[in-house]
Write the structure tokens for this entry.
Amino acid sequence: MSRSCPSRDAGLFPSEAEIARRLSQTPQEWAAKAKVLERDGLPRVDPLMGGRFWPAVRAYFLARYGLAGAEALAPDGPENLDAL
């Protein structure tokens, strides 16, 4: 098993151990689950970069749980509760 590099884990192609940590999994759990999820569209490890593109992994999970089009909206102004 390869060791994580702190500076690499903060980047766009984190180690598998860091992805496991971000997803609240052990590295062993993640390795088994990633194989299954790849069949469903989870981005694979990029051979050139040596890791999964984190924004694509995040987008995969947001879509998996129906949040792909959800985004936070800016407030439209102060609330006027007297108008109710």
